[in-house]
Amino acid sequence: MFTNLAALRRYRGLIQTLVARDLKARYRGSVLGFFWSFINPLMLLVVYTFVFTVVMPTQHPVDIRPYALFFFCGILPWTWFSSSLSESANVLISGGNLIKKVLFPAEVLPIVSVLANMMHFFLGLPILVAFLIYYQRPLDPTELLWFPVIVLVQFIFTTGLALLLAALTVHFRDIKDILGNLLTLWFFSTPIIYSMQMAPEHYRWVLNINPMTHLAISYQEVLFHIGPHGHWKWLMALLGGSVLVFLAGYFVFDRLRDSFAEEV
User: Fold this and answer.
1) Which one, of 160, 162, 157, lies nearest residue 239 by Cα?
2) Are 117 and 80 in contact (CB under 8 A)?
3) Residue 147 backbone phi and psi in degrees, to 5
4) Please, which residues have CB within 8 angstroms of residue 14's CB and are 6 or more apart in sequence?
5) Which candidate among 19, 158, 162, 188 keeps its CA 20 to 30 Å from the CA of 180?
């Protein structure tokens, strides 16, 4: 397993090419092309702002106002996470013509799905930053030092799950349907549409065992300055857990590798 894992470094050029191909394919034939990567999150934020200030002007706690912006800080990384898993669950089946080639490294495909969605996450960040400045919530340079760490933790965790799902879905096609319902439950179990402080205290232990809770709170602390701060201990614990998830996911993927060509 570790030999194949170490060999991934040799496929950096292939991964970059496939990520670029994936990004181009998403907007092929459209007039605005890559500008949709900026327009989509902008329109999403405009819709949230309209809904939560005009249609449903609920009085939210002061620490999460403006609410649409607070929500956007969580929905951007969640979209990266959920889209990566949804696409990875089907990536080996749709890429069957590639993995049937003897020398093609199949693990590249779920990794490409995660990286392509990460690029869309990055492309949405300028929109978020612009609105943070507009609403006079300037970014703290010292807290921003944690941002690459948060992204790294999410990348490792998401890639581990993506490898696991990609391998298992080849043999159990029902996983694709189960995953959609599971992600919906997972979304509402993560403090994205509400803050951790709003959750009933006797149920917070449920949220604390959810890895995405600590990623969402970390993004909120760094980008939205919602307190109390100091979630880095949970983040470091999640980093260790994410490495274990990645190794477990790659282990399962490596064990099932030889059966992919026959099953797809």
Assistant:
1) 157
2) yes
3) -60, -45
4) 105, 108
5) 19
Which of 62-76, 83-97, 216-230 tops mean pLDDT?
Answer: 83-97
Q: Which of 247, 188, 193 is nearest to 64 (CA)?
A: 193
- Of 62, 240, 220, 234, the C-alpha closest to 143 is 220
DSSP code of 198? G
Query: Cα 90 to chain center, whole Å?
Result: 17
Distance from C-alpha of 120 to C-alpha of 41, rounded to nearest angstrom: 9
Q: How far apart are CA 114 and CA 81, in angstroms?
A: 8
- 188 and 166 Cβ atoms separated by less than 8 Å: no
Closest CA to 223 of 120, 150, 115, 174: 150
In angstroms, the CA 4 to CA 25 distance is 29
Q: Distance (Å, rounded) from C-alpha 85 to C-alpha 77?
A: 13
Distance CA 205, CA 195 (A): 14
pLDDT in tens, 58-73: 666 667 778 778 888 8
- % the chain with pLDDT above 90: 34
